[in-house]
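Step 1: inspect the first sequence and its tokens.
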Amino acid sequence: MMKKVAVLSDVHGNVTALEAAIADAQAAGADEYWFLGDLFMPGPGAHDIVEMLRKINVTVWLRGNWDDFLFAALERTVDYNKPTRVYTARLAAYVMQNMPREDYDFIMALPVADTH
């Protein structure tokens, strides 16, 4: 029997869109879920997005470039001479106010590519 894999990515903090995508995948009979990165920013979703993905038992988790932007902004390893970097830093601060440290550590530990 062939598995149905739902591929999710580029949520960018949009809780409503992720809810709709998960509902659609469930209605289509998805057996497995892969998340290919970009959980955060610019939308306001943080911990709630991580929890939604945990509830559907994602089997492949990857970290995206926006997730890396979040961590770089928090660690102050970005060049703040560009206005877009200041915007990213403010978004990162907002996300961290709405996300437990355990979620941060979990996402930070994800690979940027699947090694299977």
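Step 2: inspect the second sequence and its tokens, then contrast the two.
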Amino acid sequence: SYAAHPAPLHEVGALLEARSVHPGRSAFHHLMALAHTHSIPRSRVDAVLELAGIHEAARKRVKGFSLGMGQRLGIAAALLGDPATVILDEPVNG
């Protein structure tokens, strides 16, 4: 069970809905909130922002993101815990 894991983001990373982020938060703050709840260091947040190609937009509010940028943020969140398993449900369009 996912809930039974002491640090589930280290086990499974998932992107199920790219728009499941508070629109008033920046990409950085969204990832930091996830990181804090799983004892993930800020350096990993910086790394996944870079890996997803959204480091330059990290301080912008998510409500201004295009669908593609939202998907990149979702992928960054899925990779945040450096999980053994990653589940991506329709991570790209077109």
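Step 3: confirm your contrast with the notes below.
DSSP finds three helices and two strands in the chain. The beta strands are 12-15, 85-88.
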